[in-house]
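Many introductory courses stop at the sequence. We go one step further.
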Amino acid sequence: MTAADSSKEHFEIPIIDLSRDEAVVAKELLNAFTKIGFCIVVNHGVDSSTLTNSFASSKAFFDLPLATKQQYKYQGHTSNRGFIAMGDETHTTPQQPDKKETFEIGRNDEPEYPNHWPVELANEDFKKDFTDYFTTFNELYLRLMKYIAVGFDLDPDFFNAKCNGQHCNLRLLHYPEVKKDANMVPVDSNEPIVRGARHTDYGTLTLLSQDAIGGLRVQPHGGDWTYVPPVPGGIVINVGDMLQQWTNDVLQATPHQVVEPPGQSKLIPERYSIAFFCNANKECVLDKIEGVSDEPFKYPPMTAHDYITKRLSETIAG
């Protein structure tokens, strides 16, 4: 922490056990999402094999030659599917792209926007692993949205009725191993090297599975940067801009970034994570929710699909 940051509050990322009473879980989630925007959930019901198999399949894809991966190149902001190479995504300027590569997967039964599964991995359960992952994490997403509705004292199905269209995006992420050199030293020597620039997510919730390497950190409002520790079996949950807007800023979409893990010297190890970006149904209009905020609604109403498409066009090369 620098001298300029010494007066900032330090936050801990709460770990929430989903096996407990619904009302208790709802209260803890709402508390985390209004103050920090992040938490880690455990005892969530996702089988460990789902995570193990999916990380293995993700590695198999990123191990393919670049020319092969480019055959599955990103198809555009409307479909939001395909491979995004190093340098094609930026949250700051084109001169400072994120140091990662990704593969985007959508709902598998949309004829208009099909997933293009890599034929090179046809015998390695790649499609099955991520079709199962999508289904499992969509169920967890709806469960979490029910808790949020209960926390707000709304009808328990208020959000689920507007979020049950599987308008979600499954993103495989790979941060390659990097050798440090003189050109990678940050301007502030007290700061780590950035691999994924500071940003907020765009949707309602993000459900993130991360490996044991670490490096994800968040910056709550008025607080210092706080690392999100890898918890075995834990899933990181954070609020996105869509849900912050929909709740009229009651829930907080907190800036976060991926940096080199603490304690690295000459080599930054490769890192894998899998993000499940959740959204409201495409036709859902993001507008004031009675009972959540007494303030006038601050945003122009728009559909969830228009909102996501607009945001993606601002950061990913089309």
